[in-house]
Amino acid sequence: MILIVSDRKDIQAYYVMVELDTLGIAHSLFNVADFPTKSSVSQVLGNTSDHCSITVDGGSIIRASDVTAVWYRKPDPPKMRQDIDPDEREFTFHEIHSGVQGLYDALGHARWMNPIEQVRISSNKLKQLRLAARLGMQIPRTIFTNDEREARKFVDSIDCKVVYKPIGGRYLGTRSGPWEELIVTREIYTTLLDESTIDAGLQRLSMCPALLQQHIEKALDIRVTVVGDKAFSAEIHSQTTPETTIDWRRGKDPSALEHKAHELPPHVERQCLDLVKSLALTFGAIDLVKGKDGRYYFLEINPNGQYGWVEDLTGLAINKAIAGHLANSGGRRS
């Protein structure tokens, strides 16, 4: 049994389920947001027994002992009932989340794509850059600091333009606590800085540290989706419109940009595979840049990154590769 942990609106999960059906592999989707209002989790522990089961919305029961592989995809957080008293919300939130973590522990015997703790650890962009450099990948010169003098020294030492990048999240917004959905007010993208924005930003470093990075003059953006020992590379023609020149996500419809399958130099592809393996992952969406100087530069890796639009626009068989990897991780025939 393959357990897919995701959101019921995640179309990629359903595409992979179709591929698993083709392979004859049993599977089920656990929508974490349904717990505890629409689905139930029971964990019975004793000195001689340890049983865990999930009853999903619709009534079907998944026994943890039957699960051989888990695809930890894009789950929304659990949702509490709206009628909970305000002074009970934080307590309830932590009880629910502790129960979900206990469920994941009960599935520790299965193979995970990707292990939750590794997703957390490997999501740190500073760790990613440090590891990529150790593996021989080209990276832009970078500083993360809250020291205005060090930031100014860095900017003055670079004979090129500088960009600002968020490293912990992309959204500004408000909410009363982690049990509420963030009301997004603004999305933060990689931004090219000029002298006035540099000066204004440096004065705010004591409030919030920042990552500044050498701007690479791009020829192409490259998205590399790694599944196990396979790398699927696509080039994104981001330099054809002004709004996507610095960050291809900034366009109204990034999928409107031209996408093509891209053949990486063998040593760069090997570095991408080694990076994912070194992070103890089996899936990763890597952002590279092919500079106008012909070099490939590593920017970041998302251990749960999106890939569906890449397959749609290039025909790269990523869903099939994911299903095959999960099946080879111990999926039983249905």
Automatic annotation (TrEMBL):
Keyword ATP-binding listed: yes
Gene Ontology MF terms: ATP binding; metal ion binding; ribosomal S6-glutamic acid ligase activity
Taxonomic lineage: Bacteria, Pseudomonadati, Pseudomonadota, Alphaproteobacteria, Hyphomicrobiales
InterPro entries for this protein: ATP-grasp, ATP-grasp_RimK-type, MvdD-like_ATPgrasp
SUPFAM superfamilies tied to this protein: Glutathione synthetase ATP-binding domain-like (SSF56059)
Keywords noted in UniProt: ATP-binding, Ligase, Nucleotide-binding
PROSITE patterns cross-referenced by the UniProt entry: ATP_GRASP
Pfam families according to UniProt: ATPgraspMvdD (PF21068), RimK (PF08443)
One GO BP annotation of this record: SOS response
Domain of life, source organism: Bacteria
Protein's UniProt name: Glutathione synthase/RimK-type ligase-like ATP-grasp enzyme
Classification via PANTHER family: BETA-CITRYLGLUTAMATE SYNTHASE B-RELATED, RIBOSOMAL PROTEIN S6 MODIFICATION PROTEIN
Domain ATP-grasp span(s) in chain numbering: 129-327
A GO CC annotation given for this chain: cytoplasm
